[in-house]
Specification:
The chain has about 90 residues and is an all-alpha fold. It has one domain. The protein has three helices and no strands.
Length: about 90
């Protein structure tokens, strides 16, 4: 059940991050899920001291940290791809 929650929350967080970074037209649902989950891992490394499974994945604080991690990921991808962050 936890895996399904990761996929759903990851998809929503990845979609929101792609809207913020204006890359929504370039991404599909699978890439949104990947961005959301990798963003959660990045946020866990930055804010959680390396622990990404410390508490409830549906906690609002964890979702906001995951969103911030996904935005950081998309900014890095944009920087590498285009040479500038939008």
């Amino acid at each position: 059940m936890g895996f399904i929650v990761w996929l759903i929350v990851g998809g929503i967080v990845g979609w929101l991050a792609s809207l913020v970074m204006r890359t929504d037209g370039q991404q599909g649902i699978i890439l949104n899920i990947v961005v959301g989950i990798v963003g959660a891992v990045i946020a866990g490394l930055i804010f959680g001291g390396g622990n990404i499974n410390s508490s409830d994945p549906l906690d609002l604080t964890n979702i906001l940290y995951s969103l911030l991690g996904a935005i950081i990921l998309l900014a890095i991808v944009n920087l590498v791809r285009r040479g500038s962050v939008r």
